Amino acid sequence: MTLRVVPDPEEPGGGFGYLVLEAVNSTEPTVDVQVFDTYSDRWLGASEGDGPITIGDGNWQAEAYAFGPYPMQDKGGALWIRIGPEIVNKIAEYTPLRISVAGQSVDVIWPDDVLPRTAPALVGEIRSSVVNRPIAEQRAKVVAEIDELVSPTEEPALEPVIATQTSSGQWIIWCILLALLAAVAVYFLWLEQEKTESTGIAYEPDDEAADVDPCSFAVLDQITGGFQKTEVALRDCGARISASDSLRLLENGVDAGSPEALLLFGKLNDAQQVDATFETTIGLSFDDEPATAAEYYARAKTAGSPEAENLLIVICQRLSTLTSTLAKGAYNDYCPQP
Questions:
Q1: pLDDT bucket at 76, cuts 50 / 70 / 90
Q2: How far apart are the first and last CA of the chain?
């Protein structure tokens, strides 16, 4: 059985997602879900005092807790289970978990696109105000300075002849201020048109293009040709790329079914296989999980990786000596039977 965690596309505010089960047979209409943090060795439980939004830290405890029951939907041969804020709001991105569902347990890394749900009043409007804040603050500052210049002040009474001369001077001042206002309006109109689509923040064009870091996530994520070329770039970057960004790029390759990505993910879960670049230089490493390693070796072998076939034979020898339920299940699922 394989398990993926994906966001609910009908909930842009976050808080909801789906557990997608593949290669599993179940006739039950509903199912319970248990969540175990493999790093802290604790189970996620219900939180007292949570409302429908369930904002706050998760209640991680020593005893197992079953959420549900949840209805299961069969879509294209896969079983989809919709979970809500009672689970989604309590788990941070990239948390290593063991999710038990439909009678089996699968180790997963919680993805960064299944986000917690915030209060409805905080969704949408805050983002637009933050994006346009530099322009809004600059505009307000300029308008305030102009208002200060043109605001009436008390002046001593003058003789009629002097008042006439002052009136002419005021007309000149008003003309200058109107011209200044027109220039400010034209400037902000041009500034609005120069906003970037990605951030909404206005900028002034520069004659020289800004230097682009070839090891940034944005650049590496645009590499074409599959994860095979992305992996080469990651190894060239080494410590210049963070472990979290490397994991995101690796997960993209796994989701795409890349044999190189599946093989590397299996190695990271296999303590007997050490990748110096990823585990030492970049700092991306997992605990020894032979059952998970066997799953990804098997998937990499199916995807066409010859190296994965040999590594699967080695990991299966380890699994044959282990007595845990997870190890026995992986041995039966992914290892050739005598």
A1: confident
A2: 21
Backbone angles phi, psi at 178, to 5 degrees: -65, -40
What letters, b where the CB count within 10 A reaches 16 and e where it falls short, cover 305-331? beebeebbeebbebbeeeeeebbebbb
With a CB cutoff of 8 Å and minimum separation 6, the contacts of 140 are none
Per the listing, tokens 């220039």 go with 183
Sign of the C-alpha dihedral computed for residues 243, 248, 250 and 254 taken in this order: positive
Quick one: tokens of 3? 């398990």
The token duo for 257 is 């079914």
Q: What is the amino acid identity at position 44?
A: L
Give dist(CA 329, CA 323) in Å, integer.
10
Task: Please tell me the distance from the alpha carbon of residue 47 to that of residue 60, in angstroms, as a whole number.
Answer: 9
Mean pLDDT of 44-60: 73
Average pLDDT, the chain: 81
**What tokens appear for 278 in the block?**
């990823």
Check residue 202 and give its pLDDT: 47
Cβ proximity of 291 and 245 under 8 Å: no
Per-residue model confidence as pLDDT tens digits over 192-245? 666 544 445 444 544 444 578 999 999 999 999 999 999 999 999 999 999 999
* DSSP E strand stretches across 63-207: 67-75, 78-83, 96-101, 104-109
Please give the Cα distance from 240 to 251 (Å, whole number). 19
Report in angstroms the alpha-carbon separations of 166 from 9, 170, 180, 187, 306: 67, 6, 21, 31, 92
φ/ψ bin of 239: left (φ > 0), alpha (ψ from -120 to 50), beta (otherwise): alpha
Distance CA 73, CA 80 (A): 5
Distance between CA atoms of residues 164 and 199, nearest Å:
53
